[in-house]
C-alpha cells in the first residue's frame, strides 16, 4: 500500500487523508481505520498529520503577542531536538503551519494560540458529529452532547509511546469505537467518565447515554468494567450484549441483555422501536431536537410501538408517527402536542 511509506508531511498533504480528517465519509473511515488500527508506527504518523490538518481548523482564542512569542520559542526548542533530514522537513512544515495560523489570527483581529486550549466537541440539537481521537479511536456524538478530552491528549508526548491513560468526559450520548493501544506490551486503558459512572475499556465498541441524571451503557463488542465513581466497591464486568443502567434516584446498577444494534441505530439517523412506549419516543424527540413533547392522554403514553423511525427530519418523523399510530400531532415552535 502506497501510504505505508508516507511521512507525516505526505499524509497531511494527501487529499484523501485531509478529507477524512475534515469531512469523513463511511468509505474513508473504513479505509483509514483499517490502515491505522493495530500499527503503533502508523498511529504516530497519522496523529501528527491529523494535528497539522486540524491546526487550521482550530477555534481561535485571543492572547497577548508576548504569549505567542513564548509559544513559538517553545515549539522551536522542541523541534531543534530532532536530528537529521526528517527533522529539517518537519521543522519546515511546522513553521509553515504555525505561521499560517498566526497570519489567520492577524486577519481575524487577534493572535492565535491553540496548543493549550482544552479539547472539547459539542453538537447542537438535531446534529450528530463524528470525532477522531488522537489515538485513532472514533466517537459519534448524538444531538445535544459534549465530549471533553484530557488535556495531555493534545500534545505529541502521548502519541510517542507514554503509558498515560486515555480519558474523556461525556455529557449526552455517544457511540465509541476504541482502538487497542499497547506500550511496552502493556495495554493502555481508555476511560469514559459521566457524572456518576466510570467506564473502563481497552479496545471495544459501546454506546453511552448520560441524560436527566441517568446513565446507560450498552456493549457491542469487547469487555467493559463499569464502576460508580463515588463507590468503587460496586462494579460490573460487562459482556457483549449487556446493558447497564444507573439513575441517581435508585442509586444502583441494573444489568440486562439486549440487542446492541438497536441502541446504536441513531448513528445512522434511525430510531428502532422494539416494543417501546410512545412516551419513550417522546423523550427521544426531546433529547434530539430540544423541543418539549406533551402527550395529553395517559393511555397514549403507554402505547407500545414497533418498527423504525428516521430522525434526520423532524417533520417527516412526526408524519410517520401519525401514519403508524393514528394519533394527532400539533407542532408549534417550541412544543409538540400528541393526542387521540
Task: Describe the protein in words.
- The chain has 340 residues and is α+β, with helices and mostly antiparallel strands.
- The chain has 3 domains: 2-107, no CATH class; 120-261, Sandwich (Jelly Rolls), CATH 2.60.120; 269-339, Phage tail protein beta-alpha-beta fold (3-Layer(bab) Sandwich).
- Helix content is 35%, strand content 31%.
- It is built from 11 helices and 20 strands.
- The strands form 4 sheets. Strands 1, 2, 3, 4, 5, 8, 9, 10, 11, 12, 13, 14 and 15 form a 13-stranded mixed β-sheet that branches.
- The protein is globular.
- The N and C termini lie far apart (61 Å).
- Residues 121-225 form the FecR protein domain.
Brief account:
With 340 residues, the chain is an alpha+beta fold. The protein contains eleven helices and 20 strands. The strands form four sheets. Strands 1, 2, 3, 4, 5, 8, 9, 10, 11, 12, 13, 14 and 15 form a 13-stranded mixed β-sheet that branches. The chain has a three-stranded mixed β-sheet with strand order 17-20-19.
Task: Provide tags for this entry.
340 residues; alpha+beta; Jelly Rolls; Phage tail protein beta-alpha-beta fold; 13-stranded mixed β-sheet; three-stranded mixed β-sheet; 11 helices; 20 strands; Ferric-dicitrate binding protein FerR, regulates iron transport through sigma-19; FecR; transmembrane helix; transmembrane
